[in-house]
Amino acid sequence: MFLEDPQERISKNAWDTNLVKVGHVLFNPAAANVLATSSGDYTVKIWDVEAGSPRLTLRHTDIVQSLSWSANGSLVVTTSRDKKLRMWDVRQEAPAHTVPGHAGAKNSRVTWMGEQDRIATTGFSKMSDRQLGLWDLRDPKEPVGGFHMLDSISGVCMPFWDEATKCLYLAGKGDGNIRYFEYEHDRFEYLSEYKSGEPQRGVAFLPKRGVNMHENEVMRAFKTVNDSYIEPISFIVPRRAEVFQGDIYPPVVGTKPAMSAAEWFDGMEGLPPKIDLESIYEGEEPAEIPADSKPVSRVPSSSTMLSPSKQEPSPASSKEAPEPIKEPPQPSPAFRGPPPSIKEQTNSIANLASKYEDDKEDSSSSTEEDDSSSFEEVPKPIERQVASSSSSSSKPADTKPATEITEAAAITRKLSSPVSPTKLAAPVSPSKPASSQQPPLASSATSPGAAAATTSDDQVTLKDIKVLLERQSLTISGQSEKIAMLTAEVDRLKTTIGEKM
After folding, report:
1. How far apart are CA 19 and CA 139, in angstroms?
2. 465 confidence band (pLDDT: 50, 70, 90)
């Protein structure tokens, strides 16, 4: 009904709907002056607005809950209270497909996904969980990949499709949030959501040609708040570029229809012409392009997710990562696996001690092979305990075991409490260099006392490592008990929170 004067309620064109409540009103996206309405008499009527009369009728068996046109305006998809999803060949006035929809008793909603042969529905399961479904028009027996559960909120979820960015927006009636998904590879990838403390009773989206492209706004929604005011919500790609962004603004449907109402009722089909958004960005008249024109560059993938941020009381969202910004690096979230067992820790340190022994034997054999080398080795001062004054005077400058002992001690100090250096080695006085000009292997071969001292030092070092192993085992045991206590506490908190919710 079109009113000329709202105060006097004078009707310009009063259409006869048999005094039945009208539930939905939706214009054909391709043809001019073709309107679809659903009413309480279980029908969807297709009107010729110029003539002011219905020309076609789609009959259902129960109340129609939602309807949506295809991009070329030749098909209509509906959901009804009988839990059926119907795809109609409108001018034949017969359903092309009738399949079971959402099993829940509450209302379901449907939207045609632009120029694609896919349909998105929202509804409820038998357990009253909100669901999202993707349907292939070529094989609509069941949703692609099954129904995807959203949450357990009781409000009806309203779907809105953006053909330019291939994103689906879901706004729940009575919710304060709007979540959005990207359609890719026959599935919806969750991106993010706009959250607000003010629940919405209704939501509508602005046509793509009306967004602010200078601010990289990709969508703008309007929601009613407390039946008192309308709040705009902008979704913005946070880019710093100051030129037109063709990847997020492909050609979109303009204001001109593809055909007249008479041509459509005669069976004509076609997509309406599109407009190049770059011309609007430059402040020029909208440049019309063919309907089959495709965007030059691909829509950003879901790896660069939208992130909402408020505009007025509104969020900014993007599906593409921002350009590089010089900021201090942020620490990445740590992933912690299960702690190693005491047995694993003990075996690890025992393997370290065994490796030390193997390395010492390998170094001794390599020293014997290189004994004939023309290079002269100049050893460092010996760092070990002096058994007696006589042995220290005749001991060769064999520094390899002392170096290995020091490295092993450093490793064990990292694993447990510090160990006093006096337990492992004591430096020899600089006044007694102990034949520093001869190769270590030759000196040790001519001095049996030096070999005995080395063996004694090795035994002392292994003994210290065993002590450290015992200490480490006790420490790990204590930590395991604390972890078990913390895990039990977390489980208790989860149980408490679950009972409250």
Report:
1. 38
2. confident
